[in-house]
Write a structure and sequence with these properties.
Blueprint (H helix, E strand, L loop, with lengths): L5 H12 L3 H23 L2 H17 L10 H20 L6 H14 L7 H15 L3 H11 L5 H8 L3 H18 L6
Length: 188
């Protein structure tokens, strides 16, 4: 399911819901990795992120024909990931960083995925970013992750989060302010 039109994605989802194995495989291949990255960066725990993505796929399959193709299938799926992540956070009642126990987990995740060929200093800097993100309120963290890592616009983030563009703009502004403060940058 390489770059299909939204209508094509709707047809692909309908085929998957009817049990077409190739359509299911294409959808899972397209959505699993970005869904996991969003869930992990929100939850900061591999097992919770995997559970979240599994639950999100379950919700996607149960959604039947509710996908109207007004946005991309990825945006529609991210809405399930967002909701599942926040349910997990609510159950867990924690959003703080677990300093030492997550360093190896994050280090291994980064080495195995996107920055395996980069220097150790770059890996440490990514851990600093992960730690800074973990200190944000979950809604701010999700908004900044969708903006910075997935290149979504404020409007698209609002659709995923079930919010409005102005609220998302405020979340992004606050997130950027907190991150600047964390990294010691002065507002100029």
């Amino acid at each position: 399911m390489s770059e299909l039109s939204w209508l094509g994605e709707k047809e692909e989802l309908q085929c998957a819901l009817r049990g077409d194995v190739r359509s299911i495989k294409r959808i899972v291949t397209k959505l699993a990795k970005p869904g996991f990255h969003l869930a992990y960066k929100t939850l900061l725990n591999v097992e919770d992120a995997e559970d979240c993505v599994q639950e999100s796929f379950y919700q996607l399959w149960r959604s039947n024909n509710q996908f109207q193709a007004k946005s991309s299938l990825k945006t529609y799926f991210f809405r399930f990931v967002f909701n599942s992540s926040f349910l997990i956070l609510k159950k867990r009642k924690e959003t703080i960083w677990h300093d030492l126990e997550n360093y190896n987990e994050i280090l291994n995740l980064n080495i195995n995925s996107t920055i395996f060929d980069e220097s150790f200093d770059r890996i440490l800097s990514s851990i600093d970013v992960e730690k800074a993100l973990s200190m944000l309120v979950p809604s701010q963290r999700t908004a900044i992750i969708l903006w910075a890592y997935f290149d979504y616009s404020s409007q698209e983030i609002a659709e995923i989060m079930g919010s409005n563009k102005n609220a998302v703009d405020q979340l992004l502004f606050r997130s950027k302010q907190h991150l600047k403060h964390y990294f010691g940058e002065n507002d100029k």
